[in-house]
Every structure is written in C-alpha cells, then in structure tokens.
Write a structure and sequence with these properties.
alpha+beta, 2 domains, N-terminal domain of MutM-like DNA repair proteins, 320 residues, 22% helix, globular, Helicase, Ruva Protein, domain 3, four-stranded antiparallel beta sheet, 6 helices
C-alpha cells in the first residue's frame, strides 16, 4: 500500500502537471453493490453526483492529508483519493478502446479499455488497470488525462466541500503528520504511549496515532532505532523513543527523496518506478546479513497482528 512518501510524490506530480487545467469529462468502471449507500464513486448513483460536481471545474492544487490525496477544485469542492493497496495516479494522453487489452491471462477476465498513446513507462503492465479517468483541457483546447490505475480495485474516491473536508469522516480521525512542524518529541511520545500495551510496529502503523506510516517505513524506522517490532511502548526507554521519532522522520523524507517505493505496484505521475526499494536495510531482506555497521545479525521475518515485520536478530533484540 502506498505510504506517506508515495502519496507525497504523487501530490507533487499532480501539482507539476495539471494545475489550472479544466475537467471536461470523467469516466469510471468502478461499480460495486457493497457501496450502494456510500458516497464513493463505486456507488453508481453517487458517481452521477460526482460528475456533476467536478465537470467544468479547474484544478487549483493538490495536497496530502495522511495517505489521502486532496485535489482542490475551483468550485469550492475537493476530490479525495486514497490509493489503498494497488492504486497510483498518472498523467498522459490516453484513448478509449472498447476492445482494450486483457487484464489477466484467464478466460473471462475484463479488458482495460483505456490505452496510453505515449511511448514509455505509461505502457508498463502495472499501469494498465485504469479505473478512473479525468479528461483535462488546457487553454489551447488540447485534452490529456489524469488516470487512476488500481489492479485490485480497493482505492477510494469521493468529493467533498473544501471548507469542511477535514471534519469529514474520511479525515477527522487521522493522527498528526510526522513531517509537520508540530511533530515534536512530546507530541510523538504522547501519541505512542496512548497505546502503552500494544506492539510498537502496530502502533506506528495505526493511522489514528500517527498518519502516513505503513509496513515498509515502520520496519525501516525500527531498524534504525534498534527497537524490536514487538516491544510495548511503555517498556521502551525515552532515549530510544527519541531515536525512533528521528528515524521515522528521516526514513519518510528519504522515501520522498527517492520518489517512493516501487517494490510492488506503485508508480509516479509519469508511470515511473520510485527507487526507495533499492535503499531497504530491512524490509523484505529476510535471511540476509544486517547492514548496520558492526552488526552480525540476520534479518528475520515474523507476522505481527496480521502484518509482516522484519527485524535484525542482534541489534533489535526483544529484551532491553
């Protein structure tokens, strides 16, 4: 699932490519009976409302709240996109081809009707699963497209009034942002110790505690701070909690610097892979020698509360 660095990279890409462009059409093939009464575009009735609101508006800017992309429009509404597990947003020239390309090898699999007309990374197989298309027009009346690729169809898209969006149920419970100036040690400590008996790996990923940290960056931050993922917050010394706060901030900033992590599906606005997966010191390095200077440990993997955790057998021991 895209985490804070991938979402921020996407937001930066949107701001570089589509500011000031007008939305002239919207298409989706999201449609699920499980969303019949929800204000998300997977509900066909809500999608009709969504289209009426966004068509004709211009894109002012994009921002991020936790793992959510917020695209502010000129008509006092904001589009909210949560990319979930396999979603990523791209910009380019596409054409609609009803025959499309097969989205899978098995018989009966659906087709991908939107096809990129540009050579390069947009034709990457990971970028084929187009579920949402905004047709955008510039001052020269040239049309291009902002699209959402989402192989597993888990992404969430809705539209809300800009003035009240942060009070909506989509955002009102998210914790503080680790890259904000308000993310002091005292704030971090208070949030972490609000779950004193939890496992620190799980607490870090709880979006109501701290916003934006997921499986990859929690592993990497705990490795840097020399903390075992199963430690309970109440048992972690203040010196290590201070180190953990610094590690969380550093690893998230590094993730942004390297354009996000593309070990799985994530791609940037141009359909390109990020490079943070080349910088992993722990995540998915099971069985490999720890890269910490002077450490002779081996990276191990363990499932904690349903999620994979990676840790060093030596410098991340459970007993402090």
């Amino acid at each position: 699932m895209p985490e804070l660095p991938e979402v921020q990279t996407t937001v930066d890409g949107i701001n570089k490519t589509v500011q000031g462009l007008q939305i002239v059409d919207v298409w989706t093939n999201y449609d699920s009976p499980h969303y019949a009464n929800k204000e998300e575009i997977k509900n066909p009735l809500f999608f009709k409302k969504f289209k009426k609101i966004v068509i004709g508006a211009k894109i002012k800017n994009a921002s991020r709240k936790a793992k959510n992309i917020l695209i502010e429009l000129s008509n006092d509404y904001t589009i909210l996109i949560h990319m979930k597990m396999t979603g990523h947003v791209m910009y380019g020239k596409y054409v609609f081809d009803p025959k499309g390309k097969s989205a899978g090898s098995r018989k009966g699999t659906e087709k991908d009707p939107w096809v990129s007309t540009e050579e390069g990374p947009l034709t990457d197989p990971f970028n084929r699963h187009i579920r949402l298309v905004f047709t955008l027009r510039d001052s020269k009346r040239l049309d291009k497209h902002l699209v959402l690729s989402d192989m597993r169809k888990f992404a969430k898209v809705t539209v809300l009034e800009t003035d009240t969006i942060h009070q909506s149920s989509h955002l009102d419970t998210v914790g503080p942002d680790p890259l904000s100036t308000e993310f002091t040690y005292s704030l971090f400590e208070g949030r972490i110790l609000s779950r004193p008996n939890g496992k620190i790996k799980t607490v870090l990923m709880d979006q109501t505690v701290i916003a934006g940290v997921g499986n990859i960056y929690s592993d990497e931050a705990l490795w840097r701070a020399s903390i075992h993922p199963e430690h309970m917050p109440k048992d972690i010394p203040k010196s290590l909690l201070q180190k953990l706060r610094t590690s969380v901030i550093e690893v998230l900033r590094q993730g942004i610097d390297f354009g996000g992590d593309s070990m799985s599906d994530y791609r940037n606005i141009n359909g390109e892979r990020g490079e943070f997966q080349l910088k992993h010191q722990e995540y998915r390095r099971t069985g490999k020698l720890c890269e910490k200077i002077g450490c002779k440990g081996i990276i191990q993997r363990k499932v904690i509360c349903g999620r994979s955790a990676h840790f060093c057998s030596e410098h991340q021991k459970l007993a402090l």
